[in-house]
Amino acid sequence: MSGDGVLAAPARTVAVPAALETRRTPFSWTGLVVHLLLLACVALIAFPLYYAFIISTQTVDQVIARPPVLRPAGHAVQNYVDAWTRAHMGRLLWNSAIVAIVSAVGKIVISMLSAFAIVYFNFRGRALCFWLIFVTLMLPVEVRIMSTYEVIGNLGWLDSYAGLTVPLMASATATFLFRQFYLTIPNEMVEAAQLDGAGPMRFLWSFLMPLSWANIAALFVVLFIFGWNQYLWPLMITNTEAMRVVVIGLQDLIPRTGTHIPEWNIMMAAAMIALLPPVAVILFMQRWFVKGLVETEK
Amino acid sequence: MKRSVFKNRGLPYLLVLPQVVVTLVFFFWPAFESLRLSFFRSSAFGDKVVFIGLENFQKLLVSSDYYQSVVNSFIFAFGVTALGVGAGLFVAALATQRVRGLVAYRTAVLWPYGIAPPIAGIIFLFIFHPSYGVLPYWLSFVTAYEFNWLLQGWVAMALVIIATAWTLVGYNIAFFLAGLLAIPTSVIEAASVDGAGAIRRFRLIVFPLLAPITFYLVVVNLIFSFFGSFGMIHAVTQGGPGGATEIMVFKLYKDGFIGLNLGSSAAQSVILMLVVIGLTALQFRFVEKRITY
Which residues contact residue A85 at a Cβ distance below 8 angstroms, ignoring those fewer than 6 apart? Predict the structure, then answer.
């Protein structure tokens, strides 16, 4: 049915005789109707983005024209250049990229280390550590913003990359994912490694890491998008223009009714630029993304 | 199964240290502080605090503004969930037919998940724009009613619900398809050999098998709507018009960060913590269910 084995693999390999897979199904009206309905869904879901895109290619006169112009126009380059310079897009994208990449990598590294400790060592307080990490699931930033803000203030981390990234780095889901994965690795491997005289760090680096790449890639994609789309946290702890992330920087371009020229074309051009990186990551790394989504929820 | 382990005294502590430090400093300490502050009243500059017991909570419980924000949160969360999960289930029902190219369809609907809620909100802001937007224009052919989210609370609420559901629908569809593709074709084919029509097949066989996923998605969509949609409200409606889209998380931010009413804001944090604890507990019931199934 497709080359994407991530979702389809488990049951199919067991349950479906090969003959069923390759059999040519005769033309069916039901199939046609289903395709048409599915295409309608796709069109409905795609419409807002299409609309935003065509607005980003129009002049202000076309944007406010009645009836609305639903075709792309030739003003794109000018709008995108305007959006880029007005919003200082280079700086915003750079900050967003740092936040997304550093927080994703940080989460993966510290989660991998703690899952490794929890699975491969017996130590006093192991269960306590596990519960500490687990409980963070119940403390999203939204419910502790004021006090976390104070902590960051006391650390002198306002308006800094450290403040933007470090507090995001604890991750129960990533820790669970690695723990779950380590538990599937047969004991014989550890024993063999120990017989060969490999110490724990050596075992993590040379045995576990190479086996974990699929999980790491999947997690990275999901966490990158999570980091890129952060809003409340950067809004609170950054005040200077230089430290803003793109999702927040865009707000200045929204033409509020009554007081601004309705330059929605510039606004939409900026929105297209800001949403492109995470959407491109989903499209191009879809296999990892879906694996990441489905696996982190186990 | 007993696992082989490494013997080392200090190393495991070193390994869990970074995670535990981040957890304690940025999660537990602030949560504890919120809990503590919720029993105090503090001056606007935070230099004086007075213990007042449960007064912050009492004030909230009788405040009509807070009551409004709770109602708004529930309307918003259930609206988003009904729309997002309902649409996902609709696509899943279609996909029961196992037409070719389901994964291509998945690609075609998955990408809105990558769009930050505030940006999705801005796009829908324009679609709903009373003077320039395409939606009020189309609706003007159907009805003379003027849809203006700047004036009508329910239109603003519909705007943020639709925009949020838009970012979540691809996620829901991906989960439903994963569940659907895990149901052996033979089960569905056996049913059609027995003469079950498409709708009957979905109702009697596919939906019961998808029920745990549906339950899980309902909880996840609720959690996201309660806690993840601050950006949508902040960027699009600022809680307006007239508080009609002021959800609990937004009010907490407004009272604490702008109003500097730290005690009340801390009490609101505590109430929200109870909500998230309840929802997370529900979410983990799903995990148990899936293990048995």
Answer: none
A243 phi/psi in degrees, rounded to 5: -105, 0
pTM of the model: 0.87
Chain CA centroid to CA A239, Å: 24
B48 vs chain A: nearest CA distance in angstroms? Answer: 16
Q: What is the pLDDT of residues A95-150, one digit of tens each?
A: 999 999 999 999 999 999 999 999 999 888 888 998 899 888 888 888 888 888 88
How, if at all, do strands B40-42 and B49-51 pair? antiparallel
Q: How far, in Å, CA of A116 to CA of A129, rounded?
A: 12
- Domain-embedded: residue A94: yes
A149 token code pair: 């803000």
Which of A37, A54, A139 should be substituted to probe chain B, the one whose Cβ sees the most B Cβ atoms within 10 Å?
A139
Q: Is residue A178 part of a domain?
A: yes
Q: What is the extent of the structural domain holding A97?
A: 86-296
Examine residue A116 and state whether it is found in any structural domain, yes or no. yes
Beta bridge partners of B41: B50
Residue B292 has pLDDT above 50, yes or no: no
A200/chain B closest Cα distance in angstroms: 6
- Cα–Cα distance, B94 to A296 (Å, whole number): 27
Please name the residue of chain B whose CA is at the shortest distance from the CA of residue A186: B3
Angle at B46 between CA B41 and CA B48, to 5 degrees: 65
Cβ B96 vs Cβ A25: under 8 Å: no
In a domain, A167, yes or no: yes
Interface test with A, best of B2, B100, B122, B277 (most A CBs within 10 A): B122
Q: Give bridge partners of residue B42 from the DSSP assignment.
A: B49
Percent of chain B with pLDDT over 70: 94
pLDDT digits (tens, 9 = 90+) for B2-41: 577 788 888 999 999 999 999 999 999 999 988 888 888 8
Q: What is the CATH number of domain B55-292?
A: 1.10.3720.10
Encoded tokens for A28: 């069916």
Lowest mean pLDDT among A8-12, A89-93, A189-193: A8-12
Q: Judge: B123–A48 Cβ closer than 8 Å, yes or no.
A: yes
CA dihedral A230, A236, A241, A242 (to 10 degrees): -70
What six digits make up the tokens of B9?
A: 């005294």
Q: Fill in the DSSP letter of residue B6.
A: B
Q: How many CB atoms lie within 10 A of CB A124?
A: 9
How far is it, in rounded angstroms, from Cα A72 to Cα B135? 18
Q: What is the CATH number of the domain that holds A287?
A: 1.10.3720.10
Q: Distance from B81 to chain A by nearest Cα, in Å? A: 16
Amino acid A1: pLDDT: 30
Q: What is the mean pLDDT of residues B233-253?
A: 90
Which residues have C-beta within 8 Å of that of residue A66, sequence separation ≥ 6?
B137
CB A71 within 8 A of CB B138: no
For helices B153-181 and B117-127, what crossing angle results, to 10°? 120
